[in-house]
Amino acid sequence: MSKVRASPSANALPYKNPHAKPTSPLLSATPRRKGIYIASSIAVYAFTAYGFSLYTTLLAEPDHPLPFQDTDVTDRYHTTAKHFDADVSSTENIWGITNLRRRLAEQAKGDVLEVSVGTGRNGVYYDLEKIKSLAFVDQSGAMVEIARKKWNSLHPGYERCSFHTQSAMDPLSASAMPKAGFSTIVQTMGSCSTPTPAATLAHLGNLADPNDGKLLLLEHGRSYYDWINWILDKAAARHADKHGCWFNRDVGRILEESGLVIEKVERSHFGTLWFVEARPGVRGGGKLVARKEETMEEREEKGGQ
C-alpha cells in the first residue's frame, strides 16, 4: 500500500511547513498599514525609553539632600544649558514634541512674547511675515545666550527682536512692551520650572492685549492614569534636582487658578502633555470654555473628515 503525502495546509505555521515562507507583516502591508506599524513601533520604543529613564531615575542614589516638592530649582539650567539640546532633541523628535512646537509657534503673530525661551527651540518655526516684534525671556543667562546665537544664525540682520535675562514675573523694559499689550504670548515647558506657575500665567495674561491677545502653551504634568502619576511622584524630586523641572504638577489646576480663559485643550502622551490656547481672563480663577479635552487623535480624525 503506497503512502500518500498530504499537501501542506494553507493554515500551517511556517515552522511546521517547510514549503511555507514566513511573511513580514510590514512587507505585506498596504502603505497605510505600514505607516501604522511604523508609528506603533516608534511609540513602543519611545514609551520603553521613557519608562527606562524614569526607572533609572528612581534607582539613582542622590549624594545630597533632594529638593522638596515645588522648590525653586531653576538654577539647574545654568549648568545644563550647554548640553540641553543634545539631551532632549532625540526624545522630542520621537515623542512628536518637535511638531507641537512648530504648530504652536506658527500661530504667533503681531507683537510676540516668548517666556521660558530656553535655548530657543521654537525660533526656527516663527513666521516672521506675520510678526511685528519679538521679545524672548528666560531666567537663565546661559540659556538666553544660546537662544540669541541660534536666532542670529537663523535670521541674520533681523532687528525687531530683543532678549531678556530675567524672571517672567519681572517688568519688561518699556522698549520691549507694546502699548496695547502683546498679540501672542508663547510658553513651552515653562510651568514645570517656575516656583509660581499659576501666578506666572496670570501675569502673562495681564501682559497680553486685552482685546485680542492670545496665549499659546505647551506644558507637561500629571497623567490621566494613577499608576503613571505614582511613578512621576516617586521620581519628581530626583528629576527636578537634575533637570530643574517638576514634571508631576497638576496642569489643569494651574490653568484654572491662573484666571486665563482656556479656549482649547488637547492632551496626549497618556494625558501628560498639554497643548493649550487661551486668552486673558479675570483674576481669581480660570474659566474653561473648552472644558472637554480633545485628544490629538480626535483632532486628526476631524481633520481627515
Automatic annotation (TrEMBL):
<dbReference type="InterPro" id="IPR050508">
    <property type="entry name" value="Methyltransf_Superfamily"/>
</dbReference>
<feature type="region of interest" description="Disordered">
    <location>
        <begin position="1"/>
        <end position="27"/>
    </location>
</feature>
<protein>
    <recommendedName>
        <fullName>S-adenosyl-L-methionine-dependent methyltransferase</fullName>
    </recommendedName>
</protein>
<dbReference type="GO" id="GO:0008168">
    <property type="term" value="F:methyltransferase activity"/>
</dbReference>
<keyword id="KW-0472">Membrane</keyword>
<feature type="transmembrane region" description="Helical">
    <location>
        <begin position="36"/>
        <end position="55"/>
    </location>
</feature>
<keyword id="KW-0812">Transmembrane</keyword>
<dbReference type="Pfam" id="PF13489">
    <property type="entry name" value="Methyltransf_23"/>
</dbReference>
<dbReference type="InterPro" id="IPR029063">
    <property type="entry name" value="SAM-dependent_MTases_sf"/>
</dbReference>
<keyword id="KW-1133">Transmembrane helix</keyword>
